[in-house]
Specification:
Chain lengths: ~375, ~575
Amino acid sequence: MWWTRLKALIVKELLAVLRDPKGRTVLIVPPILQLLVFSYAATLEVTNVDVMVLNRDNGHWSQDLIQEIDGSPTFRSIRFTDNPDEVRVAIDTQKVIAAIEIGPTFSRDIEASQPAEVQLILDGRRSNASQIVSGYLSRIVGTLAANTPAGKRTAPDAVSVVARNWFNPNLTYQWFMVPNLVASIALLIGLIVTALSIARERELGTFDQLMVSPLRTHEILIGKLIPPMMIGLFHITIYILAAVFIFGVPLRGSLLLLYGSAVFYLASVVGLGLFISALSMTQQQAILGAFLFMVPAMLLSGFATPIENMPSWLQPITYVNPLRYFLVIVKGVFLKDIPAVEVARQTIPLLLIAMVTLSAASWLFRRRLE
Amino acid sequence: MSDAAPFVRIVDVLKRFGNAPPALDHVAGEILGGRITGLVGPDGAGKTTLIRLMTGLMVPDAGKVEVLGFDTVTNAADIQASIGYMPQRFGLYEDLSVQENLDLYADLRGLPLPERVATFDELLEFTDLKRFTARLAGKLSGGMKQKLGLACALLRKPRLLLLDEPGVGVDPISRRDLWKMVENLTAEGIGVVWSTAYLDEAEACDSVLLLNEGKLLFSGCPAELTARVAGRVFKVSGIAHGRRQKLARYLDEENVVDGVIQGEAIRLVMRPDTKPPGLNDNPHGPSAATTAPRFEDAFIDMLGGGPGGRSKLAETQTPFVIENGRPVIEARGLTKRFGDFTAADAITFDIPRGQIFGLLGPNGAGKSTTFKMLCGLLKPSAGEGRVAGFDLRRDAAEARNRLGYMAQKFSLYGDLSVAQNLSFFAGVYGLSGARKRERIQLMIDIFGFGRLLDMSAKDLPLGLKQRLALACAVLHEPEALFLDEPTSGVDPITRREFWTHINGLVEKGVTVLVTTHFMDEAEYCDRISLIYRGRSIALGSPDELKAQVVSAELPDPTMEDAFVALVQGSEEKEAA
């Protein structure tokens, strides 16, 4: 009996989303946009850099340095100048991100085994990119320094660093981003589909119809929770397939663990969505509420910036963010074979959050009925 | 322009939206100054479209509309400067006071400042809103909102006033006030267009354009239309019991065009030169007398008569035994307070099995609140409501399994198809397997959904939506039916069909609670509670209520007369 009722409600919820052109749009457009934008456009890598060189030196060492820069794939073009004012203008108008000034005694100093200097001017407005460009250039200068007579003499004694990146050997940006997206798409879809469901019924006046049916309050709640979770799992699956087959991200861990924890993750997200839905009177309010939660949730999750970099007073807030825990699991399952114990350690907070959000939502839901 | 020239000339107008059948199908007509022209027809007949064409907000696909000598396509601005238009939901700003709304519309219409004081004064006097200038528009009653809307439309005295369904959501008393105001305007030579779905309002107009499904059925004086059925309308009385079965039998007679219940009596429209059958033999039995025809009688006659009296729905219903036990629906001192406002105050009544009980009252009087408490949508502040012996708050699920609910506005799932809606409601009421298939198939056969199963419910015409809503409400054979203004805006044929089903079900022992502000609908009830300002001010059968207000001026009061008199009586009592 209760199963008949619940099944009817779940089927209806799925149909209501799928048959509504607006509902279908929500399910199709944002996921595709998110996949394209985040994996191709929102790249954190620095490429296609333009630099300017102000070379006052006539020796071959400066020519070597310029050739090294020119040969590096990071840099797109090099502009030459002999006027310091032009450097100022080029950086100011963002024609170049960095300028290298080589002094007149550069080659002579090197030949004389004296300290030689190169000045690097960077555009501080683009702090992140500048830092990375500075790193690249320093490395090039360092290589050059090792080849100077003085450098060669000291080389055997110098400490050499050999860097090797585990899990993502070539530091491919998409290996990092696409697993993140698996978690964020589930957040987006779970939140919006749930938030809209009750608000839509309120707006259309069908909610009263549900309330006078023999469906009990908890059945309505369950019936409202399961369909968004199913849709969320569907999107997770699509994204996993895209990650493996389109972006070539390795899948090293257990899918079972991923899906198992995804259920708890979705439960906590859907609970939040239901909470927003119970608070909103119209679909517009529900969408707005969902985004009001989602933007800070993305920023406070470790999605783009590491949580460890946040000020210590802000970090505790991330403890209540379900995305934070699921990101660890998704990245772990994809890039390394994350052990079950670690998955469990991340899933327990998800379980707690789900319990809190679901009971808060059902409390508010019941209260709103009075 | 001479007085004789019509204010509006509608010439063979065609208007179509998308692929649907035309909203207006070659409509032609004239609207004269100095009189009220009724634009009459059920919802979806094309009334609003025609009004919007007259304002120049919309352009016809073919034909043309001329307003005050201007063509709506080329001179829309000239027209808009000299008409007043009150849309269905007039754009009052609910968070502004009455005075602020007037100021705003005076600004928008460019009313010169020096004229304002006098104009406001006159309009507030005219609409009787002077006492409420500081009140927020959102806090006004439905009738007062319409009056304020009218005042705003009249700020610059228009030559033509277009009113789109001004009577909706307004109680009969305010409706009469509003009507009087508009009548006064026509005395000044203003042309008024009053659109309505209420056929009794049509009767009072100077002339009407009767629309149905986009087609013009009649244009002229309403008396001319009603005259067509003169001498063919009978009131059959003396049938205290079994009037519903009797009506069903009448409706199946060849010569009966239309029939409705009127309290204890039956009103019949016969084919020309025929008399109600089966009345001659018994002197103590029912008797029939001709009675004055009404606009609705003629309308139905024009559409070729109402539906038959058989309800396949009722025939397949398993009867509920009418035992002499407790009533099926009970209200005991139901009270609901919102803050310091009492929406319903100690409402008490009970409904025995197999009866129709009506909650009648103006909007905002508390009938919906009472209704919602009884079907478990609102928690009473005091008192209790029971359905089939179950308290709706405590044993909600048991009680709800036994009730069917049909909401005021179409509230099925518009994006789901007809079949999916039926399947959903069957599932929610616990039907499964063979029984589910059987019941759904039965509804499809009864209501003729066969070809429409895959259509989204929101795309159905209004009459079919109403049928689908009824089908979903009775799928599980409920003991009690809760109907919240079930037929507002529906065409009269569908309304009759609906009541044929309800009457049939009631004969099988189903108990019905209905809220309505349709006076015709009230006539179907066995008993009525008249709710006003949160209290039940009268309780009794329709004929008892009418009898309470019989006077020298009103020897044969209609339900509406009774309503107005009882409400006014209650106000006087309160004032005393």
